[in-house]
Amino acid sequence: MADFNKILDAGDVDSGIINVVVEIPTGSNQKIEWKRELAVFELDRIDPQIFAKPCNYGFIPQTLDEDGDELDTLIITEHPLTTGIFLKAKVIGIMKFVDDGEVDDKVVVVPADDRNNGNAYNSLEDLPEQLIKQLHFHFSHYKDLKKKGSTVVESWGDVAEAKEVIKKSIQRWKDK
Predict the structure, then answer these.
(1) Taking the complete model, does pTM exceed 0.90, yes or no?
(2) Under-70 pLDDT residues of the chain
């Protein structure tokens, strides 16, 4: 398998088109994580089926969030994407998130070329309100059976805020 952090960079953050690698498909309860040290995907755990992912989940190469992992993404598509693929994605916002006291933000993206919906999603406001509610609920509660209250969705931010978080994460990567 290719080492995504060696063959891809974060993309063109200023234009809002970034590179994203898929870890977990929509609907999966398998917590699959990229292991940077080994350049492989690892099955970290099996979550209860009730907490299957409400959207695809991935990361931006050559970034580091404050928790020490690559910056996470929530990839909005109508159908699940396959673990291990990468896509050019359009940044539409950010979910400001804390996991067990650590900042663990999630950049919200859609495929950069989505002809199925006519590239209709350009900001969080374009997404169905119910989807935002489901994402908020999922990430607020998916660890409740293990450690209730350990995850907090603090707020949602716009494209500009998401780009700033990405840029800081790129700088953290360069400084490591």
Answers:
(1) yes
(2) none
